[in-house]
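Rotation project, supervised by the postdoc (A.L.). Task for the rotation student: set up a whole-complex structure prediction and record inputs and outputs verbatim in this book. Inputs entered:
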Amino acid sequence: MLVDFVLIERARSGDDSAFSQVVQAYRKRILGTIARLIGRPEDVEDVGQEVFLRLYYSLEQLRTAEVFEPWLYRLTVNAAYDYLRRQRRRRESRMSDLSEQQVMMADAAEGGRQNDEERRRSKVREKVQALLEKVSGEDRILLTLKEVEGLSLKELEKIYGVNENALKVRLFRARQRVLKAHEAQQDKEK
Amino acid sequence: MDRMTENLDALWAEYRDACPDPEPSAQFMPMLWQKIEARRLETTSLFRHMAQAWVMAALALTLLIVVLLPRLRHEQVYSANTYVEVLDDAHSNDALELLAAGEVE
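Outputs recorded:
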């Protein structure tokens, strides 16, 4: 826990300054998780604010301060999932607006401004994002939380509100799907 | 397949490094409070709209009652007779029936 239970209790009872302190303690971690979940740095703050906005209006439903972190993660997952769903719809309409050549030119212009290290990182991000695009929003979020964020099955159990066995099955299937996409990606690169 | 799994695991780790936790901008908190306020106003205004709708409905109903009630009153048939006269009319045959019953005996 990054803050003590008393502060969460105060925020829950409507103390705005306590709520601000809670946000300040968690925002960096939550923004990081969102960045890895959605893969679009320009929208991270917006989604992060949505998470804390939902937290503000749902905090009184929190049973105890002990379950605060899984609660916050659940809000993060839901906001990221909503964003990805919106984005998928928007992209479908946007893709038809730009020609492939225009997309390549924009990418090349962006690439020229980056240094080597940033270019390598950007390549990794693109590669993983392309991979995650191949699976559903649910699989994408679950895999990112487990494989990238390093959350344990126990933590995921609390976030998703399902038992460990059900989670293992979902994870196994998601892994298989992403592995298949990875194989196809590797073949394409060769 | 195992090599592919290892490869994928390494890619996850690389991705973790390639996406460090971003620093929140200076506008993060002010924007968040703005959004909280906007949502609060939106909810208040929704309640206000609902209250306004209820007031309008209540006014319309009152108006309807005011217009319809006198008409209903006019349509009702009132007797010009007094209560005793009405009773007398309703039971005018009672005495004859009693007498008739006595004759049979």
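Student's summary: The helical segments of chain B are 2-18, 28-75, 83-90, 94-104.
Supervisor addendum: Chain B has four helices and no strands.
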